[in-house]
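chain below, 251 aa
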Amino acid sequence: MPDPFTLLNPENSSPIFLIADHASRHIPERYNSLGITDPSLLRRHVAWDIGIEDVTRRMCEKLEATAIFSTFSRLLIDANRYPDDPSSTPYISDGVTVPTNENVSDSERKKRVDRFFKPYHAKVSELLEKKCSLEETPIVISMHSFTPIMNDFERPWHIGVLWDQDDRIALPMLEALRKNPTLVVGDNEPYSAREPLGYTMNEHGTKKDIPHVVVEIRQDLIDTHHGAEHWANLMVDVVRQIQRKMFENKE
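prediction:
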């Protein structure tokens, strides 16, 4: 069976580690699209974070960073939800019904967790251990994208910086982004990193005291290669500013 993740530059010595939990909309054939008969629904944001794999790959190459990408849809099992949370195998997501998820048995949930969720996060942990062994402090950025309209509300933000207890990356990132007068920047918008608590940053960041942040970019800004390139360049500049500040603070 193929791995539930793909990697870029796993062996390099950069302290920067990019994580894309919702990079893929892939659902293995044996799951029969989880009962969803309209293929177009699986191209919507309910199945993945549109555009974020493209942005993250471009950032990774420009920064010579390390990156991990999920290779399974969050409708199958959400890599950023605790497995005992019902939303980790959603039955309804933004109005889209996922028939196979209506009554997921404990044994079926365990199969998905064991096949996709656990190996993915085991690899995240392995890569983080390598980063922590370096001289420079790791910079862990969880990359996501959000839909422009949710519950009939047009979200005004271009980008959101999500954080909970650790402000080491979040505050300098907010400061750098807000210097750009063309951007509407959200501080724990359009979601809060505090409620619900995301699995990836809580388990791999907060609990391990590793500097971390969640970035959310609006999907209509990155759903083309041109848009992805623009935002990758913007984010690369921001990350480099943060890296310089962290290095200066260490001196």
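The first strand starts at residue 5 and ends at 8. The helical segments are 52-63, 106-132, 170-178, 199-206, 225-250.
thats it, cya
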